[in-house]
Write a structure and sequence with these properties.
about 130 residues, alpha+beta, about 10% strand, two-stranded antiparallel ribbon, about 30% helix
């Protein structure tokens, strides 16, 4: 990127020249660990193969994952659930409780039965309640 400025009597002239360097395909973007690559290789592999791209910066506490946690399933929006699950391992939906619900007693294992009954009230054995 080159910039120069010229002044001639009452006229001012500015010129901008942009130089684009074509990155060749000499980089092996499937070799080694991308955090050890030179910046040029990272730029090329990110642009060409979507590898070695920088992680987006996420604010440390975009959501308060403790406030209202007792009602996260019903009161939190999907984006908050996803963020808290990914960044704080909270509000993670471990099972898809609608899959196999028609025959949960034989299709589901004990962990899914307990989780779905406790968190979604699905697949509970008759007369059983979580307190």
């Amino acid at each position: 990127y080159v910039y120069w400025h010229q002044e001639l009597s009452h006229h001012t002239t500015s010129h901008v020249v942009t130089t684009v360097t074509h990155l060749g395909s000499s980089y092996n973007c499937h070799d080694g660990m991308d955090d050890m690559w030179a910046q040029e290789k990272r730029d090329f592999c990110c642009w060409k193969h979507r590898k070695g791209c920088p992680e987006p910066v996420v604010p440390a506490d975009s959501y308060n994952c403790d406030a209202g946690f007792d009602k996260w399933e019903t009161e939190w929006e999907a984006v908050q659930k996803e963020w808290c699950c990914k960044h704080r391992s909270r509000a993670c939906q471990r099972f898809q409780c609608d899959l196999g619900l028609h025959d949960f007693a034989t299709l589901w294992g004990p962990p899914k039965k307990v989780w779905c009954c406790k968190h979604e009230g699905k697949g509970c054995i008759a007369g059983f309640q979580w307190f």
